[in-house]
Structures are given as C-alpha cells and as structure tokens.
Amino acid sequence: MVTRHGGQVSLRGATALIGAADTAVGKLPGISPTALCAEAALAAIADAGLTLDDVDGLVTCTSMAEPHMYHAQMMAEYLQITPRYCVTASAGGGTTFSVIYQAACAIAAGMCNTVVISMADSLRTGLSRDQAKIMQSSTGHAQFETPYGSTVPGYYALIANAYLHEYGATPEQFAAVAVTARNHAALNPAAEQRTPITIDDVLASRMIADPLRLLDCSLVSDGGSAVVLTRADRAKSAPHAPVYLLGAGEALSHEHISQAASLTTSAARHSGKRAFEAAGLTPSDMHFAQIYDCFTPVVLIEMEDLGFCPTGLAGEFFAAGEANLGATLPVNTHGGLLSHCHPGNPGSMFALTESIQQLRHAAGERQVQNAHLGLVHAQGGILSSHCSLVLGREETL
Amino acid sequence: MTESAPKPVPRPSPETQPFWDACERGELTIQRCEDCQNLQHYPRVRCTSCRSDNLAQVAVSGLGTVRTFTINRVPVSAAYAADVPYAVALIELAEGPCMMANILHCDPERVHIGMAVQITYEPRGEVQLPQFKPA
Predict the structure, then answer these.
(1) CB count in 10 Å sphere of residue B97
(2) Is the Cβ of A209 closer than 8 Å to some Cβ of chain B?
(3) pLDDT score at A128
(4) Which of these, A163, A205, A291, B61, has the minimum number of CB atoms within 10 Å of its CB?
C-alpha cells in the first residue's frame, strides 16, 4: 500500500490495472469517436469483472474528430455516471501514461477507488478537411515555426537528420524499427498492417520528409482503448491477474522543436530514471518494452535515453534483431503505432493494453515467455514531454 | 477555412512586436538580457537565464549555419503545394540562439547540416518573414 519515505509517497504496488479492452481499429466509418470511447470503457469495465456502478473515476482525452471542450464530463453524461474524479487529459502521446500516473495518485490520495481511463478518436475517417488542417497547424509555434510549412513528419525529420549526422546511423537502421514492428503485428490478429515487410520495402517507400519515408511513419487510424485502474487491495478479486503499477516518471525539456537544447537526446532520460527508481528496478530487469513509435528514429532515441541501449547504438540493436520476440528485449510486441494502429492521442493506450495482456500471459502467439516486468514509454509534442511506467505481476511486488 | 486559405501569417504579440517591427526595417534582432548578457529567441517578457525583465532587442549579423533540416515532399496545405519540395531547417545563429526557417534561393537537395546561410526576407501578409539563403 501507500508508504512514505523521505517525505515522498511511494506508489509502488499501490494500484493495479485490472481491466483492459481495445475496440476494433483501422477504418471505422460507421461509429463515432464518442461511441468508440463508450464502447472501450464498457468493455474494459466488463473485463475487470465490474459494472459502471463500481467506477468512481473517469479519465478521457478529447477527440479531434468530435471535439468537446469538457470531454470527460460529456462522456460521464453519455454513460450516465457521476464519478467523483472526472478529468479530461489535455492531449499528446505522453499524456496517456501521465494520466495513469495521476489516476494512481488520485487513488492513493483517497479521491476515488476505481478509475476507468478511456480514449478514442477517428483520425482516419472522421476528420473534415478543416479539422485535419487545424490539427496540422496547431503543431508548432504560431509565429516562429508554423509559417515555414512543416508537416508533423517534417518536424520529426529534423530530429531524424540530426540523429543520422551525429551518430553515423543509417536509414537501414530506421527501417529495422519498422520491420520489427511489422513482424510483431503479423502475430497480432488485431493489428491494422500485418503483411511482413523488408528493409528494402521501407527504403523503397515514398519519401515524405527526408530522411523519413512512408514506412518510417506511423499509421492514421480510428479506434479506442480503455483500462481500469483500482486500489491494490481491491484488485485481488478481479477475474484476471492484476498488473501492478510499480513506478512512474514524467519529464519534459521543451515544447517547440526550435527550442530543443538537444535534437538527439530527450527528457526520457529523466522520466525513465524516475520510473525505474520508484520501482526499485533497472532497464535490464524488463522482459519487454513498449516504446512510443510515431516515427522510427524516435524509438532509437528513447531506447537509448531509457537505458536499454548505449547512446547512438539503438539502430544496431534493431538491425541485429535484438528487439524481436524471443530476443534480448522484445519491443512493441503488438506492432506499435507503426503497424498496429495510431488514432492520435489515444495511440499509446494500445501499448498499455498490450502490456497488460503480456503480463497476464494472455498475448497468444506473440507472448513474451515468462514476462513478469515491462516498461511502457510515451512522448508528446516533438520529442518534448515524456512519461514512463514500470508494470509488474503480483510476484514482483 | 477553404482550400485556397493562404499561408499562415505571424500575428505579433506585445512581446514579439519589436522583433517584427525590426524585420520590417530589414533588421534581424534577438533579445539580450542587459543584466546577464544572455541572448534568447523567441522574445519573452523575462530573461530565460536570470529572470530579469531588463531585456533589449539587439541587431545580430544575420549569419548562421544549418543545425538540421528536412525536405518536405508533402505540402502541409494547398498553399504550399507549388513549393514542394521545400527545405525546412533549424538555423543556429552566429550569436547562438536557434530559429526555424526555409532555405530559399537554393536547390533543396543542396541543403546540408553545417551549411553557411544568411538572412533574407519573404513578404508574408503584413510582415516580413525572416528566411535564410546560402551565404
């Protein structure tokens, strides 16, 4: 349970993820993002062996395709529940895990006992042309970046070129990240892209923003995903093996890429260190890692910053197949944003539900053998804000 | 917004108005803290180093090097369609601070990290948008 040492509250093992569910992903023109969010929440609650009456906390993120100013409150109304803790997460890839951290704090502080975190969007079929434009133009500083016409892949390409230049890395190493993700997606019936690809396929795909090619970029999808987080003492009666939150850490270094002190390292160094320290564990203790993969080079920088690979050498790790299932450290076992799905802000939720399945030993063909501990990491902005979570089975408490 | 929406035009704020006024005169400026000599860009109400509000907008050389770049093959909107492919770069000014710009008057395929560049301006709506070209 919650303990204090050195004035800091320890959350290690204080909360557990007991429910997890994904909706279908891909092209879903027949269902609104609001409905996807509701369906994901209800499925996760059912998976936890609970009903809506058992939930006293709700966290959602707003949808680009169906925006609401106060989204979580709207979802509570839609579901006809009145949670004591009701929060709309702002946005961005890293937000997904930071709300898990914050929900754990809310539970530890006694604000609520059981929180459902549900996120969905329809970026593939639900955006009007104006909404798509607003989404692109809301990235970047309005006076000092946006006028120069960069796309989101273009902003990340600035990082990619700096990485190639600084470390002598190669586009083939970027491609190895995409190939690894696709290999894992091929084993995942829920993944959007399952046809195996080769390094040559990636290198032959259309250039989007040099050096990033189409297959270096994540998908654009519709879909929703939800989890249920509860107090540890309430987790024991859940129908599936609880997955405990052992450590969490957040960090940021900038918001706009033109303000970044470094283009090839990130605040993941600090978020990872904080999460591992809170868990009392190290990177080498992890049995798998789910690493935010909006674009292939981001995975390499994060792997290095989190301590899984020496600086500048993550490309060699992927090229040597060490991130494959059955190898040194399986990465993005569901296929990631590159091959499983990427509906925008909810994207990294699927890495969390995958981690829960892995730690329940219910991941089917893509199960990491004897997985007891895993790390999930996400970032938002342009390599700006980061959140890392260390998760474990009961025997790791 | 319609398909024919023009390229976005920077809208100055009270902190940034002196920067854009200087661009209008063809002068690239950044902020200097008069207390600790820290140089910073974009303009802010306080020094990012010592938090002083004793800041001056001072002229810089307009010279810099390409810190990193990309060539956008896909336009961000229809307004940029005629520009494809276009280079977007981060420029490290000779004085230190970093700014984003396109590299104009240059085949984008020739842009490279470490390339020496100098300031130029592009009329954009009511402002003169700072841009860079090969030095």
Answers:
(1) 19
(2) yes
(3) 83
(4) B61
